[in-house]
């Protein structure tokens, strides 16, 4: 059958079915379980509530979550989420309300998200790195009915939590709690029987990074089908019922998206509250994970352990290392594949569109620095300042469209759009083979002496220097040239490197106007909880 000649919706449905079958999502089951699965999806839609209800029906005794507290089966997650949902409902939380979740990576995040979905409430994912004033501003704007949080964040949540239901998700042994309620008590004392579906499914509200201003809430309704899951599975070879280590923060769009994909795959999700590079390797090996989900700085931290340490762990079953959230330096991508294997997948996207392109290991080898090609169902175009599409090879502003586009910012407004596509805030270009390259953020580009310079190109070069562990390059004001480049460099332990050596290295490899005039050294770079470098902090410091 030539699928390409079929009507659009039918062709998409057949491709989705074929992809889900290859991934093991669709497989033979007892007729009663197939019927129960179909009815659950019909009643609940493609939501976290449906994902765990279906998995509990199909694989009740299989392990769903492994975290610092132990293991939970799919039946246990399903029933615990029911009890939490009923307890929240008894406190007045219902469909359309917001449930803020400020948790590290552990079962409490999973249970709170599924419980909110069971009620048709919106899950507001709070960045664990936000300050008290930022949290207060987010709470004022989003007005959640309840806040589920790890006890370590009780102090930062002071003003944000005032007058709201507070529920402790994780409490360190021996520490006195601040919240009057806890997920553990709700589970122990609650009714775990099934709930009726809400009148409408809740949304996930993910905050933007806030690196250039106050974090905004990007609301996204649950997709109406499994087509988005099939889109990712068509490019990234994940398989159903296999263990996945999610090291990326669950509150981030990347970590949350992989968690949601895991619900479709009925994956065993391995979590650790705090990222530790060697512990991540150990857990990945111990549980025979076939996938590891990270943000790029985690790759660097793991590689910094040294080749001998990394190769000392049995990662033969690790088929997919999926990274997103910021650019992967070329040197890091190449070294990862040299040391660990040809398993690195780089997803370029944003909170507003989820994904734009995916680079496979073959792409990263053939065209270092690429972020790959758009997957099926995603459109990526490059426009000039006048809003006209540019030819391949020419740089311009990147715009993206797919069925995962956000509903707009919860406080009002949205991103610039052209032809229904959402602006990414990046400048990039396509090569002759249709691979996308990101030249830099459009607001990071500086004009120095009349020349356009993207700091990312200089950063990528310096990241490959054997004496440099990490680097940030940015523009500062200059009386003569308008702007000039500055670099903050973190040396590798024991490295002998000075500012002149940094400048010489750039001058040997790039044009003279791309050489940073200011070079400073630091013990570490300030980063967000998701690993993005806070250049504004460096610039102001």
Q: Please, could you describe this protein's structure?
A:
Helices cover 33% and strands 23% of the residues. It is built from 18 helices and 25 strands. The chain is α/β, with parallel strands linked by helices. Strand 19 and strand 20 (436-441) form a beta hairpin. The strands form five sheets. Strands 2-1-11-10-12-13-14-15 form an eight-stranded mixed sheet, sandwiched between helices. Strands 7-6-5-3-4-8-9 form a seven-stranded mixed sheet. It has a domain at 446-540: GMP Synthetase, Chain A, domain 3.
* Average predicted local confidence, pLDDT: 88
Largest sheet: 8 strands, mixed
Instruction: Identify the CATH homologous superfamily of one domain.
Output: ANL, C-terminal domain
| Total strand segments | 25
SSE topology:
Elements: H1 8-22, H2 31-44, H3 48-58, E1 63-67, E2 70-73, H4 74-90, E3 98-102, H5 107-119, E4 122-125, H6 132-142, E5 146-150, H7 158-161, E6 165-170, E7 181-182, H8 183-189, E8 204-207, E9 217-220, H9 227-233, E10 243-246, H10 253-265, E11 268-270, H11 277-286, E12 291-294, H12 296-303, H13 307-311, E13 320-323, H14 330-339, E14 344-348, E15 357-359, H15 361-366, E16 379-383, E17 396-401, E18 417-418, E19 421-430, E20 436-441, E21 446-448, E22 451-453, H16 455-463, E23 468-478, E24 482-491, H17 499-509, E25 518-521, H18 535-540
Parallel strand pairs: 1-11, 3-4, 3-5, 4-8, 5-6, 6-7, 10-11, 10-12, 12-13, 13-14, 24-25
Antiparallel strand pairs: 1-2, 8-9, 14-15, 16-17, 17-19, 18-19, 19-20, 21-22, 23-24
Helix pairs in contact: 1-9, 2-3, 3-4, 3-5, 4-5, 4-8, 11-12
